[in-house]
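Students often ask why we bother encoding 3D structure as a string. The short answer is that it lets us treat folding as translation between two languages. Here is a chain of 361 residues written in the first language.
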Amino acid sequence: MISRRPGLRPIIITRSTFAGAGAQIGHWLGDNTATWFDYRISIAESIAFAAIYQIPLVGADVCGYAEDTTETLCARWAMLGAFLPFYRNHESSGFIDHEFYRWPLVAEAARGAIKARYQLLDYLYTAFYHQTIDGTPTLNPMFFLYPEDTNTFDIALQYFYGPSLLISPVTNENVTDVTIYLPDDQFYDFFTYRPIRGTGSWTTLTNINFTTIPVYIKGGSVLPIRVDGANTTTALRTLDFNLIIAPSLNGSATGSLYLDDGVSLVQNATSVIQFIYNGDNSTLSMTGTFGYDVGSVQIADVILLGGGTPMTITANKPLTGGFTMTIAANVTGGKPPYMNTSMQMTNASAAPQWYGYGVYP
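And here it is in the second language, the structure alphabet:
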């Protein structure tokens, strides 16, 4: 592959792997079936490969490889797969076709999730960079981020996508509710920006339609996202960034962004950028190295969450050097990423019943 594209990265996806393989290849979870059992198992398997086995580019055959899928399973899986590193709709012959466009419901679910995935591709790429440099996982089981909270130890159906996004998918057939765990921390709904105070307890989400997946920003995060989705990574690279500031309980937040040309085996120039928000004096600072030329791409807006209506502050800061700015007045309401959601949240009396790796009886 290198001889055909000298100097450019090949992509190798394999089912058979060995210790250390993650430095060179990606892994798909094998020929699964279009069942809710395999949907659930794929979550725990992906966490294990990315976080424990150090193979960060991992994912399942979305909607199931063998057997006939269903419209609602494919809709849920289209959204779940968008928040895993390797995302592929794939199937065997002899079963009903399940491209996303074949059902209006699945197409709508996929459009919203794919747009969010593209907006977050630089965030995911930055997570890959950190795992390459120091082993910090691209996917994290909840106990990696909350090691002192014993309630997180056996949770296998929720996980962190990168350091900042808690993914809490619906995991049962033809239902619109799921019971999830929120640690004692500050969170924000990724799709609505609504602040949610976790209390270290189980919570039941209801009215989760089949085009919505629950995703929460961890308090203390500065999340760089593109201003819109795109059909290709080439087109995406021409779009500006927005910074979402999701303050922690003490009002601070940090984040990072890694940039390079995205295709070369050896990079001639890179940017490694850090963001720090200080809630005490309402300032945002960007520092780091700025070797990669992004052209006219800039930080367009800063979106500050918390309290009432999110605030959008026009920044228009180039990615050529550091800056410090005050998050001040003259702001407008923040526009969250696209996905219609009308979820409701109530306290749950107990944790959902599962056995190891999220397998329900």
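Translate back mentally: The longest helix spans residues 36-52. Keep this in mind for the problem set.
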